[in-house]
Amino acid sequence: MKTTLKLQRNWKPTLMLALAIVTCATTAVRAETPWQEAEYRRDQERKARAYQDKLIEGCTKSSASRSDQYAAIAYSPATKNWGYSYQYPNLAAAQRAAVGECKTADAIPVGWASNGWYCALALGEDGSWSAASGATAAVAKAEALKECRKLTTTQCVVVECVCSR
What is the pLDDT of residues 78-95, one digit of tens each? Predict the structure, then answer.
């Protein structure tokens, strides 16, 4: 592999040398020919898809293949602690577990989901909060943010999103 440095006016030679070294090092590690580079990319994409499939497998299986499962989120307005639970056989058990994870006496269940749905909790900088459920994580987060913004003029952020499976 041949590397050529072409210096132009106002360019620092050391920066160009560093870029050339990094470019050569990455190319040499991954592949020597365009065909090998394409094969490397395909292999990386296959690995990424397999990893994503493994991560979301639990939430995409049909409801018929499993019994009902619940998730819950609990929140303590006084301490601003939250807790969550998932994969519980009933709503009461999921809520009790979420309150227990919160580890505060004033924690209350604020959101829940079942059978592959998601629940999310959004908090405002001024202590306001909102929880919402949705068929996807994106929907649950968007709804929680939307409702939180109705309650405050400060910044809202999603602090938790959990799937029931």
Answer: 999 999 999 999 999 999
